[in-house]
Amino acid sequence: MSASDFVVVARSLTKRFKDKVAVNGLDLEVPAASTVGLLGPNGAGKTTTLLMLLAVITPDSGTIDLVGQRLPRHRSRALSKVGFVAGYLPLPENLKVREALTIFAGFYGIRRPETVISHAIERFGIGHLTELQSSELSSGQRTLVSIVKSTLHTPALLILDEPTASLDPEVAGRVRSALLDIHREFGTTLLVTSHNMKEVETLCDRVVILSGGSIAADGSPTEVAAKFDTEDLEAAFLEVASRSRKFGTADDRLAGDRGGEHR
Amino acid sequence: MSWTRIRSVVLRHWIVLRRAPHRWFEISVWPILDVMLWGSLGVFVAKSDTTSRAATPYLLAGIVMFWTFTQAQFAISLGVNEETWTRNILNVLTTPLNEAEYIAGLVIFGMLKMVLCMATLTVATVVLFDFDVSELGWGIIPIAALLIINGWALALVAVGLVLRLGQSAEILIWGLNYLLMAVSGVFFPADALPHGIGVVADYLPTTQAFSALRELLDGKPLPWGTLGVSLVGSIIFFGLSLALVVWLLRLFRRRGFVTRYS
Q: Which of A79, A93, A263 sits opposite B96 (nearest CB)?
């Protein structure tokens, strides 16, 4: 595979917060049009890794090429092909859904967003929400709108941080279906963090388990389970979590800063 | 720079202003209250001393120009704070919008707000105190331009401090404004300030701009020398503020402070 076949190429990525290592020499390649789950117990370095890939946090060392663009120099160009959805991230409260979509379409450089937004609203079946303000949406509706917002520009890579956290199973299922539709129709790569192993098995061909900021396992869900001699991904995850429990990591501190349990 | 992205920043803040009645206070109610306060004080002083430079026109022209400075400051600092209040910073930072485009959008939106604020102030001063600041002529424009540059510079300092210290530092957005108001001789010459503070005030580009305003009110020609010195000071202040905010933005990214707002 050539470099252009990857949407993420991270080399020797390291991030410390004071004396704690959040990400420790991480090497990660994500091929285009793949679906990858980034897993790990709280504080494993998942969110820090995602935020470095999005150029929101600067790594202490290492390099990142995002959709073929070196960060942070070509951040703007790279992010024009990337979408980001986080279950914990609200839309601006004082905007109606259609207004928020119009504004974010503009941020993504879409000059005449009306048609794009109309198609997206139809595709995701959120026509009844367009005149509501973000504060009036349920968690599931907010996540759906966030996905719509982050895919208006048909990104090559969609990064999802706990997309179905706090959603009921029915809504979570709809969100997963929507994500798989986007992946199949547009070849959008999905890079997902989740603590729901069933969800990861549904969405992802490959999983990368982080522990203490390093990769503890990398392969298909079946391969990862086999590596830890467990019967499924959840058991493998629990095995990694129990091993890493001894170590407090800097990502825990980050989660504490936000008051988030899983971030 | 993408005009589409800049336009979206303007639209985002215009919708917020249109939707939130309390956001109109900073371009209508507070400036009118200031006009009432300083105008009445001027009338009172003028009654006891008709030759006083502190009479109504000086105080009203001072407050109108101070609001020019304030609106320039608020345009950027309150714009960034709108994103922190609505936990929208991470949403914005993960789009292709870059810092220069974002600030450009805020500046354009701020200019629109400034026009509305100036219209309000002009009507208020004319109706309440029969004083029309536009009668000072074109000389008011370079003075306003200098104050706008200084407002932007102070806003960058405030934004940098909010990025570094968190939302609790928002109080500085208002506080820094009034600090500069107190030491810039908005209504009086700097030599009226306590000794020591007056010496510092002499070096501030805002002091020189307000001093030029008083010359204009005295009917003298525009003091281009004073304005030139103010321009140099304004450029230095703006450059230092820009360097500070760029440095603090790098620190913001390096230390992962974004997680405070998400």
A: A79
**Please, are residues A67 and A7 in contact by the beta-carbon 8 Å criterion?**
yes
pLDDT tens digit string along B136-183?
Answer: 889 999 999 999 999 999 999 999 998 888 878 888 777 888 888 889
- Residue among A17, A77, A106 whose CB faces B8 most closely: A106
Complex ipTM: 0.86
CA angle B42, B48, B51 (to 5 degrees): 75
Cβ of residue B18 closer than 8 Å to a chain A Cβ: no
Helix axes B56-85, B99-129, angle to 10 degrees: 150
Q: CA neighbours within 13 Å on the CB side: how many for B152?
A: 21
Q: Containing domain of residue B183, as a range? A: 3-261
- Residue B176 Rama label (left phi>0; alpha psi -120 to 50; beta): alpha
A147-169: average pLDDT: 89
User: In this complex, do A17 and B256 lie within 8 Å of one another by their Cβ atoms?
Assistant: yes
Are A106 and B258 an interchain contact pair (Cβ–Cβ within 8 Å)?
Answer: no
Q: Domain tally for chain B?
A: 1
Domain tally, chain A: 1
Contact A140, A168 (CB under 8 A): yes
Residue A170, domain extent: 32-47+73-258
User: Helices (DSSP H) in A6-91: which residue ranges?
Assistant: 46-53, 75-79
How do residues A231-262 score in pLDDT, each as one tens digit?
888 888 888 888 776 555 444 444 443 333 33
Residues from chain B that touch A15, judged by Cβ atoms under 8 A, are 256
Q: Which pLDDT score, from 0 to 100, does residue A44 have? A: 87
Phi first, then psi: what are they for A35, rounded to 5°? -130, 115
pLDDT tens for B199-250 read 889 899 999 999 999 999 999 999 999 999 999 999 999 999 999 999 999 9
Q: Domain of A112: which CATH number?
A: 3.40.50.300
